[in-house]
Automatic annotation (TrEMBL):
InterPro entries: Ig-like_dom, Ig-like_dom_sf, Ig-like_fold, Ig/MHC_CS, Ig_C1-set, MHC_class-I_related. Transmembrane segments: none annotated. Coiled coil: none annotated. This is Ig-like domain-containing protein. It comes from the Eukaryota. Residues 1-27 are annotated as: Disordered. One of its GO terms (cellular component) is extracellular space. It comes from Denticeps clupeoides.
Length: 170
């Protein structure tokens, strides 16, 4: 089955809303995994190498517009705390080894003008990139277009048809 062979790894970013309010000097840091397929992923935080459950909110996995998925894990600690300890976002997906991203000021993307996530447009369509590079092996021919269409239809059917969704989950 083609769908069971498709595994697209997540892209991981550390995000933070730029907060300059004196009453809220720091907003939570979000570990954002996106662009992965299939939808099963574990997104968590560690403090000094130990799993952290306090001050962490993990959202449900959500679909992206291109058939891939995204998931967020929010870390609610002040910069004073995370600068004195090592906080690591850990993303585990069946596409490969776990991704460990250590929280540093340099790695955080904010919504400040001209920097970070708001200006980042690379890898916006990972499923399309996967279909072009893996299914078409780099050459864009009529046969390749047919393969892309068939692959996209299979993925769409497997994600939207309740019968197939229940079969895949079990």
């Amino acid at each position: 089955n083609l769908n069971k062979e498709i595994k697209i790894p997540p892209q991981v970013s550390l995000l933070q809303t730029d907060s300059s309010s004196p009453t809220d000097p720091s907003s939570p840091v979000v570990c954002h995994a996106t662009g992965f397929y299939p939808d099963k992923v574990k997104n968590s935080w560690q403090k000094d190498g130990q799993d952290l459950h306090e001050d962490v909110d993990v959202d449900e996995t959500l679909p992206n517009h291109d058939g891939t998925f995204q998931k967020r894990a929010e870390l609610k600690v002040t910069p004073d705390v995370w600068k004195k300890n090592q906080f690591t976002c850990v993303v585990e997906h069946k596409s490969g080894d776990p991704i460990h991203m250590i929280l540093t000021e340099e790695k955080i993307r904010t919504n400040s003008a001209g920097t970070g996530a708001s200006s980042s447009r690379q890898n916006q369509f990972p499923l399309c990139k996967f279909l072009l590079t893996e299914v078409c092996t780099g050459s864009f021919t009529r046969k390749c277009v047919i393969r892309i269409i068939v692959s996209a239809l299979i993925i769409y059917t497997l994600q939207t048809d309740p019968f197939y969704a229940s079969v895949i989950d079990h």
